[in-house]
Amino acid sequence: MNLVFFDIECAGVHKTYAKICAFGYVLCDEKFNIIKKEDILVNPKGKFELTDRKGEKGIVLPYEYDEFKRHPSFPHVYDQIKALLEDKNNLVFGHAVLNDVKYLNLETRRFKLPSFEFSFQDSQLLFMTHINDFSRQFGLEHIANALGVEFTPHRAADDAYATMRIVEALCKVNDCAVEELPKLLNVSPGKIARYQITRPQSKGFKRYNAEKRAAKNERSQKRIRFYNNLSRKRVNRSGGVLKGKTVTFSRALEDDITVSIPLVDKIYASGGRYSPKLDGCTLYISAEDDITARTKSAAERAIPHMTLEELEAFINA
What we know:
- By secondary structure, the chain is an alpha/beta fold.
- The chain has 2 domains: 2-199, Nucleotidyltransferase, domain 5; 233-316, Rossmann fold (3-Layer(aba) Sandwich), CATH 3.40.50.
- Helices cover 43% and strands 21% of the residues.
- The chain has 12 helices and 13 strands.
- It has helices spanning 65-68, 74-86, 97-110, 123-131, 140-147, 156-174, 181-184, 203-231, 251-255, 257-269, 293-300, 308-316, and strands at residues 2-14, 17-29, 34-41, 90-94, 118-122, 187-188, 190-193, 196-198, 201-202, 246-249, 273-274, 283-285, 305-306.
- The chain has a 7-stranded mixed sheet with strand order 3-2-1-4-5-7-8, sandwiched between helices. The chain has a 4-stranded parallel sheet with strand order 11-10-12-13, sandwiched between helices.
- Helix 3 links the parallel strand 4 and strand 5.
- The chain is elongated.
- The model is unreliable at 52-56 (pLDDT under 50).
């Protein structure tokens, strides 16, 4: 059994195309002894679109762009790549590999070629499952730096090499052979066949997503209750200490309906009104340590601020 680690760079990606310009891979045995490391450069048959419209936020590939034009287009390297990835003797890995598999899918469609058909594992998902942290994406450079792996970012073969070293390190930490690693971490492979892609998955990631959906649904239900209560409120025309004031809460305070709903009642009883929007807000309420976007925006607009305790004291004075 051999292992294939691959990475793809594109001249431009759109929902209908991915102009592959480099396919890098490392082929090694199950002990991580390298058999071959190669960058297959590809003429993308189109211009490079690596930045946004302002020429910013793009990546810089460590190649001379004119060099790609001297290489064959994707249909001419398709058979070589397909044979490598579909060899039943090879286990295939990538980092955030779902994107790369989508690029292959888009290119086969663009050039009217048969679909790829192979299974693959994601080193990013394996790492996230290993540390049981699914709260953010861990980039190849971040993990490589943590493991002391040196490589040139965005050179496809070097990205593939770094992916190999990440998987090797995970095997050492878990004291297992490479074919045992996914089973040990309860990670199932992704698949592509007939242009249909199934993403790699882990029990830990499924559990995290289920908990995240439940928390989101709970917040949604709380906001429905909060705004239903708010819709029934009418300003106290006789006035009070908050007469003429429009109050806005931080998102965290607004979501804590055991506090926010009774407080809105007090605001309206005191002659004020509540708005979730900062436009027109004359008094902003949040915890002193709140640093969320709404609170930062309120500070930038220099809207008068009170803590929850200060507002309670002001109303009850």
